Amino acid sequence: METIKLDGESRMQKSVKSLQDDFNSIRTGRASASLFDKVNADYYGTATPLNQIANISIPEARLIVIQPFDKNALGDIEKAIQASELGLNPSNDGKVIRINIPPLTEERRKDLVKQAKNMAEQAKVAVRNIRRDVNDAIKKGEFTEDEKKKGSDEVQKITDNYIAEISKLSEEKEKEIMEI
Q1: pTM of the entire predicted model
Q2: What is the 3-state secondary structure (H, E, C) of the chain?
Q3: pLDDT tens profile 26-46
């Protein structure tokens, strides 16, 4: 039974980690290299993550500088950023790409909060689905009724902890988005 619970908890941890990665891709009012974690540029016919073909630096609070390792990739990187859902306008000077992060409007902030809440809700659903799978595995296992009940109770406690962690992450992200 322990391996069933440990497997379930491991899967729940992965759901929380995935949510954190998703939250990193949401643009707040500040410059962050993690904004580009999910942006892929066409590099010699292959979709390649930006951080593998360029150096991304943050010299100022609202400025991102992207310096490609290969100057020929500048145009492709610029196109990938424009095509992404980040809503950023890169400026290419022939050597580097500079991106000014404009302050977010109140309406855009509210949209981002909705997006973050939706991501958090999806993570909670994933954790609950994992709980269901673990409980089903416990029920099908050859355990006594008392062991099954105890196992289900322990799985519920683990689930509650991960749901609380997701809620906390969601609240922190909401505060981060709404701060001016």
Answers
A1: 0.75
A2: CHHHHHHHHHHHHHHHHHHHHHHHCCCCCCCCHHHHCCCEEEECCEEEEHHHHEEEEEEECCEEEEEECCHHHHHHHHHHHHHCCCCCCEEECCCCEEEECCCCCHHHHHHHHHHHHHHHHHHHHHHHHHHHHHHHHHHHCCCCHHHHHHHHHHHHHHHHHHHHHHHHHHHHHHHHHHCC
A3: 877 777 888 888 889 999 999
